[in-house]
Amino acid sequence: MSKDNQILEEFTSKEYEHGWSVNYEADEAPIGLNEDIIKWISAKKEEPQWLLDWRLKAFRHWQEMTEPEWANVTYPKIDLQALRYYSAPKQAKKPKSLDEIDPELLQIYERLGISLNEQKRLQGIAVDAVLDSVSVGTTFKETLSKLGIIFCSFSEAVQEHPELVKKYLGSVVPMTDNYYAALNSAVFSDGSFCYIPSGVRCPMELSTYFRINAANTGQFERTLIVAEDDSYVSYLEGCTAPQRDENQLHAAVVEIYAAKNAEVKYSTVQNWFPGDKEGKGGIYNFVTKRGICAGDNSKISWTQVETGSAVTWKYPSCILKGDNSVGEFYSVAVTNNYQQADTGTKMIHIGKNTKSRIVSKGISAGKSQNSYRGQVQVMKRATNARNFSQCDSLLMGDKCGAHTFPYIDIQNSTAMVEHEATTSKIGEDQLFYCNQRGISTEDAVALIVNGYAKEVLNQLPMEFAVEAQKLLALTLEGSVG
Amino acid sequence: MLTIKNLHASIEGNPILKGINLEVKAGEVHAIMGPNGSGKSTLASVLAGREEYEITEGEVLFKNKDLLDLAPEDRAREGVFLAFQYPVEIPGVSTTNFLRTAVNQVREYRGQEPLDAVKFLSVMKEKMKLVEIDQKLLSRSLNEGFSGGEKKRNEIFQMAMLEPTLSILDETDSGLDIDALRIVSNGVNKLKSAETATIVVTHYQRLLEYIVPDFVHVLYNGRIVKSGTKELALELEEKGYDWIKEEANAASV
Ligand SMILES: Nc1ncnc2c1ncn2[C@@H]1O[C@H](COP(=O)(O)OP(=O)(O)OP(=O)(O)O)[C@@H](O)[C@H]1O
Ligand SMILES: [Mg+2]
């Protein structure tokens, strides 16, 4: 036992890999938050009046709201007036194509290992890259548009497809939904928009890469995915941020709409800066993600690998409205040092024969706190609803914590809801066994953790799964002596 | 190859090994027998580098290196292999994946190129035959839900893959059925060479009919109290340990 502790004392965490920042000239809103700022943002983006009105309505509503405190996380109050709500790299003119993007910006992405150059992309992954408040470019647009697929930045969608944006914006996450969603609705700057028409199977992974670069700037992106009848899309989201002493706020909203027989797979590998070993700095990640299975037989599947952020507050959810619709949530959340994560899901069964599956794997190391919070709700009309939840926690050392908060609310007696939970420790026996075969402790931890998280990692598209495995190993590097 | 001199080890302040002396030369097979709780597994663990044990006295030389000075993974890379009495389960990690990591780390230490997937699989195929292990077992999570016998067979399969110079088999025979015992023992015998040595810990003479020892030692109360040739194992089988205990207790008064 004392050995366990001693091993953990030798904890030396690897530095965050993406902690660099780049100086570029930026187009910035003044610091602070008020109606003028919102008008400024909206004007900057040349938005239609209805959208400005929508923002202002959200803002007025938000002013009446108070910050939620029910999550199992603690952090100093964020001074929202001290933040900047818009920062965009200055480009001489709006790039019409990828070739016109400032090479310096492209380099930022090259450095992150993401090439926006279509020729260089190895295989079919279309990328939309968002830097601070704006999208800097989207790849493979033409290929996709031939199929009628729209994949572009949110701002562009507002200009080019206002009717679609107007129809779906706020339809899954109402502007009044919660404190951060309301804030996002008021000040959101950019994000991705994705529309798959009826009967189309999107032939490549669509992916958005978010990068915060500017200091003291909140990132409030908005993602909207609409999958029409009989369509399919797999969407990926990745995130990094520079290493800064101050905390930075990230409050995104993601909405997914799945029509009849449509299937949407949404995968995230979240690697925001988690703060340093002493818990200084890091991103506050307060995100609202929700999907609605509006049509019969539709399916929405969330997969998330959460390794970054100082504080994470995130519950990707599914509203299972269509009969026979399916919601899935697969999650690996790793916390190390002083990170805090309160994450989970909500499955709301409304339609008949709806099914949901929750697989949550928490990994806590250092002095971190890791909570799973999940809600399964079965409404009156939802005959034969099924839910299976598996919530596992893996502890590394005895200074960290794992918590599980399952809420179950059943209003239809035909429902079958199963919940399983386990807590385990990386055993010294396991480590010694690996060591005895010549495997270093570091690699043994990676092996054991990846084995533990396998069920979730298997849900990720191949290329992402490899990334995610490396990231898990990296996050926990040095977590056992 | 291995020299153990006056080795004392304790756990949580309880002395378990109380002065072990043993010399193992290349090409030899040593059997260690002894009553339950006498310290056989402790000795094996200490040699493999389990950190819970505190070495209070003595030294161990392996290929003229101070073994006790090496980290457990380096001992393994130097060629010490322990077939565990109770193999550990690692959920979600297949034996194949586990071994690929192990083999390549060992190879790296020994200055050899890592094996690519194709090469690795062909080596695996070859070694699988040696212990007649089923491919299906190897793609399942390591030891998870394995039967007792399957675990033991898997240990020897790993030994075959890692090509150790000193193998310590801790009660590998327990849990094996009659046929498996023969198959696994044959495997061990095929892996033997003039450059390697084997220490087998067992309670039963039966194993020693297959893996014939050059020396048999009796461990009792943390000490080797009697050593002999394979005939000693037969004698123990017949008479039990009481006479040894009596002799040892008389001697230590
Ligand atoms: N943490 C501990 N504290 C006290 N005694 C311990 C501890 N761990 C092991 N022991 C004791 O050390 C002694 C030696 O154990 P060991 O496993 O080496 O025996 P063994 O000879 O392998 O026995 P068996 O034949 O049953 O496998 C036992 O009496 C055991 O109870
Ligand atoms: Mg034993």
From TrEMBL, chain A:
It comes from the Bacteria. Belongs to the iron-sulfur cluster assembly SufBD family. Residues 146-201 form the SUF system FeS cluster assembly SufBD N-terminal domain. This is Fe-S cluster assembly protein SufB. One of its GO terms (biological process) is iron-sulfur cluster assembly. The gene is sufB. Residues 210-451 form the SUF system FeS cluster assembly SufBD core domain. Pfam families: SUFBD_core, SufBD_N. It comes from Arthrospiribacter ruber.
TrEMBL record, chain B:
The keyword Transferase does not apply. Residues 2-246 form the ABC transporter domain. CDD domains: ABC_FeS_Assembly. It comes from the Bacteria. SMART domains: AAA (SM00382). PROSITE patterns: ABC_TRANSPORTER_2. One of its GO terms (molecular function) is ATP hydrolysis activity. Belongs to the ABC transporter superfamily. Ycf16 family. This is Fe-S cluster assembly ATPase SufC. It comes from Arthrospiribacter ruber.
